[in-house]
Amino acid sequence: xxxxxxxxxxxxxxxxxxxxxxxxxxxxxxxxxxxxxxxxxxxxxxxxxxxxxxxxxxxxxxxxxxxxxxxxxxxxxxxxxxxxxxxxxxxxxxxxxxxxxxxxxxxxxxxxxxxxxxxxxxxxxxxxxxxxxxxxxxxxxxxx
Length: 144
What we know:
Elements: H1 4-12, E1 16-21, E2 27-32, E3 35-37, E4 40-44, H2 57-64, E5 67-74, E6 83-94, H3 98-110, E7 124-136
Antiparallel strand pairs: 1-2, 1-5, 3-4, 4-7, 5-6, 6-7
């Protein structure tokens, strides 16, 4: 699964990109805030303006096709400092229960912006990490 180096790299990244696809394999990619516990990556739907919080394409796609990928990367003009970690797995949509609540606590700890949002009633995407891949320099600090 995730190596210690990959875990440290992901802990320094503030945003990742979630790739989903519908039942016809039409891709959709969105930037996301995330937190990882053990072998699961969590993403919550938040209160930022959206047309709907339950009919989001990412949620519809996961319901049709739970295979997803998530990538977090670090770009720098000095290309010796480039790096990324990609996670592949099956996603579940959590709408209630202990894991849902624990995931939102974990995400609130990582992102202070979520602490003032009323997210308890919003879905959480749980990506069960099945395999990982990475490339580049995973030891550099995030650039300002």
